[in-house]
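Take a minute with the sequence and fold tokens given here and flag any structure token that looks odd. Thanks in advance.
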Amino acid sequence: MDVVTGLVAEKPVVIFSKSSCCMSHSINSLICSFGANPTVYELDQIPNGRQIERALLQLGCQPSVPAVFIGQEFIGGANEVMSLQVRNELVPLLIRSKAIWIWNKSK
């Protein structure tokens, strides 16, 4: 768990992903579409990826990826992020975490 905490510290948006996961790619694309630049850790491409995946499962992320942290807070997986988007709560959360500074809906 300490490994995950260290990786998300002081970063506005962190996504734990796997390079073969289409949902991880979709969530990353969604967050980037608002102008955020998330830190992405591909668990299948880093040495301690299995250890991090076990910690994410302990946090309750089922499946383990994507696991999204915004403002150092565990948000959840793809379903939770999409629910925030549908309720128009994702952009305000990104703004509060300083991942983005301004949002123009007319884009």
Notes: DSSP finds five helices and four strands in the chain. The two ends are 39 Å apart (CA to CA). The mean pLDDT is 92.
